[in-house]
Write a structure and sequence with these properties.
Blueprint lengths: L1 H14 L2 H12 L5 E5 L4 E9 L3 E6 L2 E6 L3 E5 L3 H15 L2 H17 L6 H38 L3 H14 L7 H20 L3 H14 L4 H14 L4 H13 L6 H17 L3 H15 L6 H18 L4 H14 L4 H13 L3 H14 L4 H14 L3 H15 L4 H13 L3 H14 L4 H13 L4 H16 L5 H13 L3 H17 L8 H18 L3 H14 L4 H13 L3 H14 L4 H14 L3 H13 L5 H10 L5
Helix pairs in contact: 1-2, 3-4, 4-5, 5-6, 6-7, 7-8, 8-9, 9-10, 9-11, 10-11, 11-12, 12-13, 13-14, 14-15, 15-16, 16-17, 17-18, 17-19, 18-19, 19-20, 19-21, 20-21, 21-22, 21-23, 22-23, 23-24, 23-25, 24-25, 25-26, 25-27, 26-27, 27-28, 28-29, 29-30, 30-31
Length: about 650
């Protein structure tokens, strides 16, 4: 059949018009199962009709595409579309055109799958097998072509002729037939760029090395070593460079499990340094901690930097006034990273104090002092805590404050606290000496003058001490620091000196400062509010306005129900209203809260003596006044004589 068709084609070429000759050639090469176009002269063309117009019929034949005049076409008989591509693929296979054959086989298989007619499964299996054979042939062909190029590239690279190696690879890629797996060549180009970067690094030309590495990762985004070196070079120039961080991250992601551990650790460390630079402290801390766990002996500063970055993050949380639980968590993590570091413990102590968690604060400070005893500020903070606990805790406070001064004699705050302890014990001379030392160390702070003024006020048995007290409180107001304490004290003095309007102004100024939040750390807000309301109430008492006074005292009680002076003042108000039973209860409550205050016993003794007609109890409390160091012994003797008793 083929030989006969060839003879016809040869004859037609000599005598027939050109288009007839083309038809006969197509007929000779026509595959089985294709469309059949019958011409008006009785001849036919077999192929695939790909387009029909009013004037043309276009047929894809094994020999190429033909355009037939519509006037010459008698009829078109449709065949099986996939068979045309199958037959063409068979022909191309015989010619060794594996790429063309593969495309035709794949098209035939697609048409088989899309065909509404059933397809012989054996034929379909054959097509699939032929596709695999074509792919294998292409792979073999590409390996042969590419292997030759790669061998030459190896030689060029060994001679450091990187430019020529890259040119050869690029030319091979451009010359490769369509569909060949040229990706291996691109990956090899990435390796050449990496090698050239290493060569440039040896020549200390990191600027051009960076360019080569960028080209390498563009060609092979999975090349871990290129990412690692690029990240390191960029980080050396600018640790905050986002591309440096991204490259180091990518390198870590791509490192295989068996990669050089030293390079892995070094890359982690470089990434942590970059993250530290851009303020990503938590992640930097985690990576430094990892480096310490994996290679602490090689990176001696890794643990310290892990803790430092946690502490920096804690500082940022504090500046942002973040939730204290978040701050507590970060500081706890810092402590857990290195239990021997004192900074996290001290900051934990500070936070616990702010949260009112006294026991936890003491525990944190104590652990810190066990690690390093010579910490004057930590001793001072412990002294402050125990000072505010009051009573017997003052002995412990005193010990810590002396430790603080022993390590740092210039700590004026420690001298002030010791002065207040001496004042609470009635050791006035010692208190004055301590305050004078504090003022000598720093005369710009209000606190020292406030404490010394309190000493003078308590000793105000003459005009001179009262004048000294007022002068010190006035000096305190001119200094920085506590502006509440001096005003409160001046209010008390002015009230005692019956300067009621001035006293009221001071008390109200204090309440305004409290409302505005201008409160020093050592001030108990509720206690100060209670003192102000007691002062305002006493002003009402002096003006015989007992009901208004009682309203103020009740507010004071609500703020501080443990403040004995509140109940003593309430007792006086109830007396003014003639409610003697309630006055008695108030005085007894004051004595219960502060049994060592002699004036409570004195007021209650007068109530029993003058209002409740209970001389025995009056005598009892007059004597308790004396036992608790009351100073007006002459008045007590006169009152006892009225009741027929003696001291």
């Amino acid at each position: 059949m083929r030989r006969w068709a060839g003879q016809i084609a040869g004859l037609a070429a000599a005598v027939a018009p050109c288009w007839i000759a083309a038809i006969l050639v197509a007929l000779a090469a026509a595959p089985l199962g294709a469309d059949t176009v019958t011409l008006s002269n009785g001849n036919s063309v077999e192929g695939l009709v790909v387009e029909e117009t009013a004037t043309l019929v276009i047929v894809e034949t094994a020999g190429g595409r033909m355009s037939l005049p519509r006037s010459r076409v008698a009829s078109i008989t449709r065949g099986v579309p996939w068979d045309f591509h199958f037959q063409r693929a068979e022909m191309l296979t015989q010619q060794g055109n594996w790429h063309g054959a593969l495309a035709c086989y794949e098209t035939a298989l697609q048409m088989m799958d899309e065909s509404a007619e059933s397809v012989d499964e054996a034929v379909r299996t054959r097509v699939i097998q032929n596709i695999e054979d074509c792919q294998a042939q292409l792979q073999t062909q590409s390996e042969e072509v590419f292997q030759t190029a790669l061998s030459q590239v190896d030689l060029l690279e060994e001679s450091h002729r990187y430019g020529e190696a890259l040119d050869l690879l690029q030319a091979t890629i451009e010359d490769a037939a369509e569909g060949l797996p040229t990706e291996v060549l691109r990956l090899r180009m990435a390796r050449v760029h990496l090698a050239q970067a290493s060569h440039l690094e040896d020549m200390r030309d990191t600027a051009h090395a960076i360019v080569e590495l960028q080209a390498a990762v563009e060609l092979d985004p999975e090349l871990a070593e290129a990412h690692e070196r690029l990240g390191r070079y960029l980080a050396d120039r600018n640790p905050s460079n986002p591309q440096a961080i991204a490259s180091l991250r990518r390198a870590i992601e791509l490192f295989p499990a068996d990669h050089d551990p030293d390079r892995v650790i070094a890359t982690h460390y470089a990434l942590a340094e970059c993250l530290e630079e851009v303020g990503q402290n938590l992640e930097a801390s985690d990576i430094f901690a990892y480096v310490h766990r994996e290679a602490g002996s090689q990176y001696t500063r890794a643990l310290r930097r892990a803790v430092d970055n946690r502490l920096r993050w804690a500082e940022r949380l504090r500046e942002a006034q973040a939730d204290s639980d978040d701050l507590l968590r970060v500081l706890t993590e810092a402590h857990q990273l290195d239990p021997r570091r004192i900074e996290p413990l001290n900051l934990l102590g500070d936070l616990h104090r702010e949260r009112g968690e006294t026991d936890q604060a003491i525990t944190s400070y104590q652990r810190s002092l066990e690690i390093e005893h010579a910490q004057p500020l930590t001793h001072l903070k412990m002294g402050q805590i125990f000072f505010h606990l009051g009573g017997a805790a003052h002995v412990v406070a005193e010990r810590y404050l002396h430790f603080a001064i022993a390590n740092d004699p210039t700590l004026h705050s420690a001298h002030c606290y010791l002065a207040e302890i001496s004042l609470a014990r009635g050791e006035f001379a010692e208190a004055i000496d301590r305050v004078n030392v504090a003022i000598g160390l720093n005369d710009r702070l209000a606190r020292g003058y406030t404490i010394r003024g309190r000493v003078y006020r308590i000793r105000a048995d003459d005009e001179e001490n009262r004048a000294l007290a007022r002068a010190d409180f006035a000096r305190a107001l001119e200094r920085i620091g506590d502006q509440i304490g001096p005003r409160l004290e001046l209010g008390i003095i002015c009230m005692e000196e019956q300067e009621f309007n001035t006293a009221r102004n001071y008390f109200q100024e204090v309440l305004t400062l409290l409302d505005e939040g201008n409160v020093p750390e050592d001030i108990d807000v509720n206690q100060v509010r209670a003192q102000c309301h007691v002062g305002l109430g006493r002003i009402f008492l002096r003006r015989n306005l007992s009901n208004q006074a009682l309203d103020q005292f009740r507010q004071a009680r609500d703020y501080d129900p443990t403040y004995a002076e509140v109940f003593a003042a309430m007792g006086e108000a109830y007396e003014g209203l003639g409610q003697y039973g309630q006055a008695e209860e108030a005085y007894l409550r004051a004595i219960e809260l502060d049994p060592d205050e002699p004036n409570h016993h004195f007021r209650l003794g007068l109530l029993y003596h003058n209002r409740l007609s209970d001389p025995d109890r009056a005598i009892q409390h007059y004597r308790l006044y004396v036992e608790h160091n009351g100073t007006d012994l002459q008045t007590i003797q006169q009152l006892l004589e009225e009741l027929g008793a003696t001291l």
